[in-house]
Amino acid sequence: MSTITLIGLDGAGKTTIANLLLESSSRPMKYLYMGTAIGSSNYALPTSRLLHYLRQRKSRKRPLEVQQALRTLKKRNNRGRISAAFVLLHRLGEEWFRQLVSWVFQLRGFVLLYDRHFFFECAPNDGEDQEHRRLSDRIHFWLLSHAYPRPQPIFFLDAPPEVLFERKPEATLEYLAVRQRTYLNLGKQMPNFFRIDATQPPDEVLIEIQTHIDRIHENKA
Question: Which of the following CATH numbers is that of domain 3-44+91-220: 3.90.79.10, 3.40.50.300, 3.40.190.10, 3.40.109.40?
Answer without folding.
Answer: 3.40.50.300
